[in-house]
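Below: protein 1.
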Amino acid sequence: MLKKQGLLEIELSGMHITENGKILIDALYDVYNKLKGIIDLQKKLEDALSIKKIIIVPGNSTEYELTLKEMGKITSSSIINSIQSNDIVGITGGSTMANVADQMPQLDKPLDVLIIPARGGIGSDLETQANAIAAKMAHKLGGKYKLLNVPDSLGREALEMVMKNDEIKESIDSINDLNFLVFGIGRADTMAYRRKLPKERIECLLNSGAVAEAFGHYFDINGNEIWEYETIGISIEKYKSTKDVIGVAGGAEKAEAIIAVSSLRKDITIITDESAAKKILELLYMN
């Protein structure tokens, strides 16, 4: 039946979906979400968190690669549909944002935008560094990019030294001028370990209730700041004043972090998966 309608092709090598089939799948996405209850879940979560918009991808991105890829596709589509000519777009690092860059389609018509890392580098994995992600996104969007070739954890004296470099100063100035931000929402413990903080500091953070990290700041589930780690890149004040912000995170283990970050500003779009969404509602109703 699908073959007769031109939606599926059957060959000796196997079956594959035609271009018309792909168009139909996209068109049925909202219908599928409504039948599965995702639309109602989104509305409940927007009301519970009191935020601008939430987009929920069916499934669990921690357990299923297809769900993770779909979350990357939805995020990249939201970016393309929202950015405008001459926008300066800040991108953070991490595996979630690396997936977004991987799923970003190559545009036929280039966009006149500037993509920049919103913070310095963390860890040693090149593919998940903000520099690499910003460059890949800029290439796929046909825009320009700048690099921030400094680690996230420079001390104040070292920062004053590197700021004398014209290229780094120019990148920092661009971060201060960005008007669109896309960032992965991090757990406090995960980010503390990635930064290789002292064991005593990590224990202190967790014992104090820290569940989320954003731009060097550690927060409890209510959005109260527990501790600030001096970093290079976007400040929390700039985060709160940036015109358009998209936060991305999936998996039930990210639920507390999403709640905490959502309390920092209400004019935000959160893209997550079904498992995180249900866990968030469970936590909110428990409290």
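Below: protein 2.
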Amino acid sequence: MSPELVEISAQPSYPVELLFPMDKHIDAASGVFMYPSVDDPSVPFTDDVVSLPDPNYTLQDPIPVTVGYEEGYYLVSDDRFLRYGTGATLAEAKEDYGYALLEYYDDLIELEECLAPHLAYDLQELRNTIIPQRP
């Protein structure tokens, strides 16, 4: 005897807000976005770094990062440049990430003449992403 097939539409559906704690953040330009809550950051989530800690540089576009929380600190990392930052708060971790990214950028510029191909590619990507501000 085979078990009865149950119609999928008859299965209960749960809104994502009940499955993952969410905070609503309102962006005037784009409307309402929902992000996983930093009140329960045990599950890594994605966010964007939109500014750098040094006012002499701005970002052309936001950099997508993964945010995790472990043993009292936040970890912000990216898959593009393989940099990370940590901090007691999410803002501190993003700031630390910004410093790590700028340090990587400065190191690559300093060594530009002898970079391996993958590092030369990173430098070009950083030049397309980080915009130095004119005084």
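Residues 13-26 have pLDDT under 50 and may be disordered.
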